[in-house]
Specification:
Layout lengths: L1 E5 L11 E5 L9 E10 L2 H8 L10 E2 L3 E6 L4 E4 L2 E2 L15 E2 L11 E5 L3 E3 L6 H5 L1 H15 L7 E4 L5 H12 L3 E6 L2 H10 L3 E4 L8 E6 L3 H10 E9 L12 H6 L3 E4 L5 H14 L5 E6 L3 H10 L5 E5 L2
Helix pairs in contact: 3-4, 3-8
Bound molecules: NADP nicotinamide-adenine-dinucleotide phosphate (NAP).
């Protein structure tokens, strides 16, 4: 079958290790099921994998991709939860210390077929195309957990979302609006700020711009480039929810600000299978349209990954597999 896979790790030139080509059919262990992939979505995770973050040389070659929607071996239209728990784990899978994401230990979704544990399948609602459904399992799920599980926000509160153009951030704008929050967003580029307004942001700001008032919570996926602004944006007692650090992992901590203003810094990672089910219900019930920047065939995955490296993206890049 055809797949996009990491053949080599190159921390400086992630595209150098990417191959598109024929690979063996998936191995389907007891309790797992094969899914015919119709659409997969790219994430910054694929860039990190090619750079060797979360993927080591001894696991190569590794099929990339965390997100998939397709048809299971019983003919059901499904989307795939990307978190694979360790055998015997019970409870919130994102708290399993031995969990992995598709493409870290088990082959990923950028392939014609994929094997996953049966419990990782979620029925695809008829309201979503395969391409739209493929956007949900990583970026939208991460945004969902940040906003509705980890932020402590209540309807009417103000949330600032940094880096509006990104997959998680643009999802967070849509979900935050649906959740009844006052939604503010930042971006480095005017076209992305305009896009954030189209998605439902109430106000937009340049990256680092002084805000008219302090906010209740900040959703952080950018890291070093926006961290200082995020700390300064918060009301006393406010909370940063952080799930990523695209621009760098080591921002200045500004400890005095954190303790004098009693700020909270809360980590968030992916979400559970149950949260993915609730996200799918929310998207279905509210008529939220997952934002697709562009769709590509599997043969052109490299151009999509390059766009993620360049930050040249508005929402999700989807790979239509069959
Ligand atoms: N913990 C988890 O479970 C989890 C899940 C999903 C993603 N993540 C992480 O979250 C991050 C975002 O993921 P994604 O897939 O949404 O990535 P993405 O689509 O590539 O988005 C990254 C966004 O970050 C902003 N950005 C990048 N460099 C910047 C800089 N130097 N200054 C200001 N803004 C900058 C950009 O926003 P603007 O251009 O609009 O300013 C860009 O659109 C990644 O690091 C990813 O690994 C973590």
């Amino acid at each position: 079958m055809l797949a996009a896979f990491a053949l080599r790790i190159d921390p400086d030139d992630p595209l150098a290790g990417l191959e598109i080509g024929e690979v063996p059919e998936p191995n389907v262990p007891e309790g797992w099921v094969e899914v015919e992939v119709r659409a997969a979505a790219l994430n910054h995770h694929d860039v990190w994998s090619l750079r060797g973050q979360g993927l080591s040389e001894e696991r190569l070659p590794m099929i990339l991709g965390c997100d998939a929607a397709g048809v299971d071996s019983d003919g059901n239209e499904v989307l795939v939860h990307a978190v694979i728990s360790s055998p015997g784990w019970r409870g919130d899978d994102s708290l399993d210390p031995k969990r992995t994401l598709l493409s870290e230990l088990h082959p990923g979704s950028l392939a014609e077929r994929l094997a996953v544990p049966r419990e990782n399948l979620i029925p695809k609602p008829a309201s979503l195309s395969f391409a739209e459904a493929a956007c949900l399992p990583t970026a939208y799920l991460t945004a969902y957990r940040m906003l509705f599980t980890r932020s402590g926000l209540q309807a009417g509160d103000t949330v600032l979302i940094q880096g509006a153009g990104g997959g998680v951030a643009s999802a967070a704008i849509q979900l935050a609006r649906a959740g009844g929050f006052r939604v503010w967003a930042t971006s480095r580029e005017q076209r992305k700020r305009d896009y954030a307004l189209e998605l439902g942001a109430h106000a937009v700001f340049e990256s680092g711009e002084r805000l008219p008032e302090k906010v209740d919570a900040v959703m952080e996926t950018v890291g070093e480039a926006t961290w200082k602004h995020s700390l300064r944006a918060l009301k006393p007692g406010g909370r940063i929810v952080v799930s990523g650090a695209t621009s760098g992992f080591n921002p200045p901590a500004d400890l005095p600000r954190i303790f004098f203003l009693q700020l909270e810094v809360v980590g968030s990672t992916m979400g559970s299978r149950e949260e993915l089910g609730r996200l799918v219900s929310l998207v279905d019930a509210q008529g939220i349209e997952p934002q697709i920047d562009r769709t590509l065939p599997l043969a052109e995955v490299a151009s999509g990954i390059q766009a993620l490296v360049d930050g040249d993206v508005l929402g999700k890049i989807v790979v239509e597999v069959s």
